[in-house]
Amino acid sequence: MPVKIRLQRHGKKGKPFYWVVAADSRAKRDGKFLEKLGTYNPNTNPASIDLDIDGSVKWLQNGAQPTDTARAILSYKGVLLKHHLLGGVRKGALTEEQVEEKFKAWLEEKEGAIQAKKDGLSKAEAEARAKALEAEKEVNEKRAAAALPEEEVVEEATEETAEAATEEVAAEAPAEEAPAAEEAAKEEE
To answer: What is the pLDDT of residue 89?
Structure first.
Protein backbone atom coordinates (compact mmCIF):
# COMPACT_ATOMS: atom_id res chain seq x y z
CA MET A 1 0.00 0.00 0.00
CA PRO A 2 1.63 3.32 -1.06
CA VAL A 3 1.64 5.74 1.88
CA LYS A 4 1.79 9.52 1.53
CA ILE A 5 2.46 12.12 4.19
CA ARG A 6 0.07 14.89 3.23
CA LEU A 7 -2.20 17.63 4.52
CA GLN A 8 -5.82 17.07 5.44
CA ARG A 9 -7.88 20.28 5.35
CA HIS A 10 -10.01 21.35 8.28
CA GLY A 11 -11.27 24.73 9.46
CA LYS A 12 -13.85 26.96 7.87
CA LYS A 13 -14.10 28.78 4.57
CA GLY A 14 -11.29 31.31 4.27
CA LYS A 15 -9.60 30.07 7.48
CA PRO A 16 -7.87 26.80 6.63
CA PHE A 17 -6.35 24.57 9.27
CA TYR A 18 -4.52 21.40 8.32
CA TRP A 19 -3.67 18.08 9.90
CA VAL A 20 -0.43 16.47 8.75
CA VAL A 21 -1.33 12.79 8.26
CA ALA A 22 0.10 9.57 6.94
CA ALA A 23 -2.56 8.19 4.60
CA ASP A 24 -3.04 5.69 1.81
CA SER A 25 -2.42 7.58 -1.43
CA ARG A 26 -5.70 6.22 -2.86
CA ALA A 27 -7.80 7.66 0.00
CA LYS A 28 -9.70 10.93 -0.37
CA ARG A 29 -7.95 14.14 0.67
CA ASP A 30 -10.05 14.60 3.80
CA GLY A 31 -10.90 10.91 4.18
CA LYS A 32 -9.43 7.97 5.99
CA PHE A 33 -5.85 8.23 7.29
CA LEU A 34 -3.44 5.90 9.03
CA GLU A 35 -1.93 8.25 11.61
CA LYS A 36 -2.17 11.92 12.53
CA LEU A 37 1.37 13.32 12.73
CA GLY A 38 0.66 16.95 13.59
CA THR A 39 -1.09 20.20 12.72
CA TYR A 40 -0.34 23.19 10.50
CA ASN A 41 -2.03 26.58 10.91
CA PRO A 42 -1.13 29.05 8.12
CA ASN A 43 -3.39 31.78 9.57
CA THR A 44 -0.77 32.95 12.09
CA ASN A 45 2.44 34.83 11.34
CA PRO A 46 4.75 32.92 11.36
CA ALA A 47 2.67 29.84 10.62
CA SER A 48 2.32 27.53 13.62
CA ILE A 49 3.35 23.93 13.12
CA ASP A 50 3.02 21.19 15.73
CA LEU A 51 4.58 17.94 14.56
CA ASP A 52 5.47 14.54 15.98
CA ILE A 53 9.06 14.36 14.74
CA ASP A 54 9.76 10.75 15.73
CA GLY A 55 6.50 9.48 14.23
CA SER A 56 7.20 11.33 10.99
CA VAL A 57 10.73 9.91 10.82
CA LYS A 58 9.33 6.41 11.39
CA TRP A 59 6.95 6.81 8.44
CA LEU A 60 9.74 8.16 6.23
CA GLN A 61 11.95 5.18 7.15
CA ASN A 62 9.09 2.85 6.21
CA GLY A 63 8.90 4.41 2.75
CA ALA A 64 6.16 7.05 3.00
CA GLN A 65 6.49 9.79 0.39
CA PRO A 66 5.62 13.37 1.44
CA THR A 67 3.74 15.71 -0.88
CA ASP A 68 5.47 18.97 -1.85
CA THR A 69 3.85 21.05 0.90
CA ALA A 70 4.30 18.30 3.48
CA ARG A 71 7.96 18.02 2.45
CA ALA A 72 8.42 21.75 3.07
CA ILE A 73 6.79 21.43 6.50
CA LEU A 74 8.87 18.38 7.41
CA SER A 75 12.02 20.18 6.30
CA TYR A 76 11.09 23.29 8.29
CA LYS A 77 10.67 21.25 11.47
CA GLY A 78 13.85 19.18 10.90
CA VAL A 79 12.24 15.79 10.22
CA LEU A 80 14.10 15.36 6.93
CA LEU A 81 17.38 16.29 8.63
CA LYS A 82 16.85 13.74 11.36
CA HIS A 83 15.91 11.11 8.76
CA HIS A 84 19.12 11.91 6.89
CA LEU A 85 21.23 11.71 10.06
CA LEU A 86 19.65 8.38 11.02
CA GLY A 87 20.62 7.10 7.55
CA GLY A 88 24.21 7.85 8.57
CA VAL A 89 23.70 5.77 11.71
CA ARG A 90 22.51 2.83 9.62
CA LYS A 91 25.62 3.11 7.47
CA GLY A 92 27.87 3.33 10.53
CA ALA A 93 29.14 6.87 9.85
CA LEU A 94 27.53 8.37 12.98
CA THR A 95 26.43 7.26 16.43
CA GLU A 96 23.04 7.92 18.04
CA GLU A 97 24.62 10.45 20.42
CA GLN A 98 26.17 12.41 17.55
CA VAL A 99 22.84 12.45 15.75
CA GLU A 100 21.06 13.79 18.84
CA GLU A 101 23.73 16.47 19.38
CA LYS A 102 23.58 17.66 15.77
CA PHE A 103 19.79 17.66 15.78
CA LYS A 104 19.57 19.60 19.06
CA ALA A 105 22.11 22.15 17.81
CA TRP A 106 20.08 22.59 14.63
CA LEU A 107 16.84 22.95 16.64
CA GLU A 108 18.38 25.65 18.86
CA GLU A 109 19.60 27.56 15.81
CA LYS A 110 16.17 27.24 14.18
CA GLU A 111 14.39 28.42 17.34
CA GLY A 112 16.70 31.44 17.45
CA ALA A 113 15.81 32.31 13.86
CA ILE A 114 12.09 31.90 14.53
CA GLN A 115 12.30 34.05 17.67
CA ALA A 116 14.21 36.73 15.73
CA LYS A 117 11.44 36.77 13.11
CA LYS A 118 8.75 37.07 15.81
CA ASP A 119 10.68 39.92 17.47
CA GLY A 120 11.08 41.67 14.12
CA LEU A 121 7.36 41.34 13.40
CA SER A 122 6.38 42.70 16.82
CA LYS A 123 8.87 45.57 16.43
CA ALA A 124 7.50 46.38 12.96
CA GLU A 125 3.95 46.29 14.32
CA ALA A 126 4.90 48.65 17.17
CA GLU A 127 6.53 51.05 14.70
CA ALA A 128 3.46 50.95 12.48
CA ARG A 129 1.26 51.78 15.46
CA ALA A 130 3.55 54.68 16.43
CA LYS A 131 3.43 56.07 12.87
CA ALA A 132 -0.34 55.73 12.79
CA LEU A 133 -0.59 57.57 16.11
CA GLU A 134 1.66 60.38 14.86
CA ALA A 135 -0.37 60.69 11.65
CA GLU A 136 -3.58 60.80 13.66
CA LYS A 137 -2.16 63.51 15.94
CA GLU A 138 -1.17 65.58 12.89
CA VAL A 139 -4.64 65.23 11.39
CA ASN A 140 -6.25 66.22 14.69
CA GLU A 141 -3.97 69.26 15.01
CA LYS A 142 -4.76 70.35 11.44
CA ARG A 143 -8.46 69.82 12.08
CA ALA A 144 -8.26 71.88 15.30
CA ALA A 145 -6.26 74.63 13.56
CA ALA A 146 -8.77 74.75 10.71
CA ALA A 147 -11.70 74.81 13.12
CA LEU A 148 -10.37 77.78 15.18
CA PRO A 149 -10.27 80.34 12.34
CA GLU A 150 -13.77 79.28 11.28
CA GLU A 151 -15.01 79.85 14.83
CA GLU A 152 -13.31 83.26 14.88
CA VAL A 153 -14.89 84.13 11.51
CA VAL A 154 -18.28 82.99 12.80
CA GLU A 155 -17.81 85.02 15.99
CA GLU A 156 -16.75 88.10 13.98
CA ALA A 157 -19.72 87.66 11.67
CA THR A 158 -22.12 87.40 14.58
CA GLU A 159 -20.52 90.48 16.16
CA GLU A 160 -20.86 92.38 12.87
CA THR A 161 -24.50 91.35 12.45
CA ALA A 162 -25.18 92.31 16.07
CA GLU A 163 -23.55 95.73 15.52
CA ALA A 164 -25.50 96.21 12.29
CA ALA A 165 -28.70 95.31 14.05
CA THR A 166 -28.02 97.78 16.87
CA GLU A 167 -27.21 100.50 14.31
CA GLU A 168 -30.46 99.80 12.48
CA VAL A 169 -32.38 99.94 15.71
CA ALA A 170 -30.59 103.16 16.64
CA ALA A 171 -31.34 104.63 13.21
CA GLU A 172 -35.01 103.66 13.46
CA ALA A 173 -35.34 104.95 16.99
CA PRO A 174 -34.40 108.59 16.15
CA ALA A 175 -36.67 108.45 13.12
CA GLU A 176 -39.53 107.41 15.36
CA GLU A 177 -38.62 110.07 17.89
CA ALA A 178 -38.63 112.80 15.23
CA PRO A 179 -42.32 112.41 14.32
CA ALA A 180 -43.14 112.17 17.99
CA ALA A 181 -41.21 115.37 18.59
CA GLU A 182 -43.08 117.05 15.71
CA GLU A 183 -46.41 115.97 17.13
CA ALA A 184 -45.42 117.28 20.55
CA ALA A 185 -44.44 120.62 18.99
CA LYS A 186 -47.81 120.88 17.20
CA GLU A 187 -49.66 120.25 20.40
CA GLU A 188 -47.78 122.99 22.16
CA GLU A 189 -48.86 125.52 19.58
So the answer is: 85
d(CA 59, CA 83): 10
CA gap 107, 77 in Å, rounded: 8
Q: In angstroms, rounded to a whole number, what is the distance separating the alpha carbons of residues 106 and 100?
A: 10
Compute φ and ψ for 27, nearest 5 degrees: -75, 160
- Mean pLDDT by groups of 10 residues along the chain of 189 residues: 91 94 91 93 90 92 93 92 89 87 91 90 92 92 79 60 60 54 56
Torsion angle, alpha carbons of 47, 52, 53, 56, to 10: -100
Q: pTM for the complete prediction?
A: 0.64
Angstrom distance (rounded) from CA 53 to CA 78: 8
Chain length of the chain: 189
Identify whether the C-beta of residue 66 lies closer than 8 Å to the C-beta of residue 4: yes
Q: How far apart are CA 37 and CA 53, in angstroms?
A: 8
Q: Provide the edge-to-edge strand list for the sheet that holds 35-41.
A: 48-51, 35-41, 15-24, 3-12, 65-66
Q: Which string of DSSP letters, residue by residue, matches 139-167?
A: HHHHHHHHHHHHHHHHHHHHHHHHHHHHH
pLDDT for position 57: 93
